[in-house]
Amino acid sequence: MSKVHSLSIRPRSLSSKVILLGAFLTFVVTLYTFSSSYSFRISSWSSVFSQQRQHTLCTPEQWSDGRWVYSPTSDLVNLTRSEQALSLAGFDGCAADREYHWHLGTDHEEQWDRFPKVSSYRWLPSRQCDVRPLDGAAIVKDMVENGGWLLLGDSITENHFFSLSCLLYPHVRATPNYTENPYFDRAWEQRLYLSPSSPIISEIAMPEGFSIENTPLVSFRRVDLLLNGTELDTIYHSSAFSVEPPTGSNGTKAESVFGDEAFWSLSPSEYMPTFLDSPPDANYGTLVVSTAGHWTTTALRAFRDEDAGEDAGYGIRNVLAFFKVAMRSWAGEVQNAITEYHINGGRRPKQVVVRAYLPGHENCHNIFEPTETIVPWANKWYNWPWIADFNTEFQEVLSSSEFPDIHYLPIERPGRLRPDAHASGDCLHIISGAGVLEGWSHYIWHFVTRELKQKDLV
């Protein structure tokens, strides 16, 4: 009898193979189904799973929810020469030269006793934040490769520009030269260019058409109100804005919303073409704006109501109402310009960030360290007690989906905790090197290079 050879079958092994085969066939069918043009694609699966591990690195609110920590960068125990303020701040120098010593807080020797302490604090954001260390060379590289910054605002924004010229030094040079021409108007455009002697030039991928000599990295324009006078008068008289006229106005609107107080401002129709231009004339990626300080009842005299009294800001609530309508008009004009840029083939990313405005402090020159909480107002100086309301109104306007390329950054809290960081002659302007202005640059750099890019990936 011949021997029969049988195939030995193990039930557990067969079961495993059947399951694996079924899983493979299911995967193939799924791949085909979700690869069709009528359903979301297989790449969407990666986003589904990656959403679990992707997280916001540091929102503006998380950045602001922090504290100042004592962290000196120098062994100097007192200031004996004005140039020592640079090393105390951790700067190698500053490219800009307009009101150089005023910006550094060294123009009044009787106030040098606040050094080195005023330059010895750094902002520590909340533990939720994952932010790169502040690095001037890295910022310069990003600005060249991905677009520089166009800063629009009042003299507080000029403070920011000067700080940037220190932070980015020695990789940038500045124009115009105010040392040689001290009578240049303050509203003249100030610019930072890539320095031809910067040691990082060989590491930078230059965009097509970029000129080291002619393409600015950072520019500042004095634009107090973001809209020009004609535009604001038009809004004031339009049906889009209605408000109860001040006492004694005979129930009619004034001929102009403005009084005699000087201000500097431009129309978006003037600065948006510059922002959207291409190398070699421009290479901006981010428009940084801030406004509120000049929205007062003295500048906008039509709203002045003496009978309302100091506690009511002499009619400041009407200014607030006007501000909200004007900022909605501004946002629409700016967003339309960016949208049209892309429709017409513009490929470079263009984004706008609105930095919350920072009011001043009372009694600032008698305070020599940061506070842990925001001190309530004792007086009704200027429009300072209502700046938070202006910020809230602007943030509410920009919360609309109508303005996808305009982003509001409520990052004023670190500055509200630094009454010690003001310029020697007033309690509004901020000195460079105290950490407040540098913190603005740090977060804006993070936001445009990390937060916005992460949103694009989701």
Describe the protein in words.
- With 458 residues, the protein is α/β, with parallel strands linked by helices.
- It is built from 13 helices and 9 strands.
- It has helices at 11-34, 42-53, 60-64, 84-89, 100-104, 136-146, 155-167, 229-237, 268-276, 316-343, 387-398, 413-416, 436-457, and strands at residues 67-70, 121-124, 148-153, 172-175, 190-194, 216-222, 284-289, 351-355, 406-409.
- The strands form 2 sheets. Strands 4-5-6-3-7-8-9 form a 7-stranded mixed β-sheet, sandwiched between helices. The protein has a two-stranded antiparallel ribbon with strand order 1-2.
- Helix 10 links the parallel strand 7 (284-289) and strand 8.
- Helix 7 crosses helix 13, helix 9 packs parallel to helix 10 (316-343) and helix 10 (316-343) packs parallel to helix 11 (387-398).
- It is globular and about 65 Å long.
- It starts with 10 loop residues before the first helix and ends with a helix.
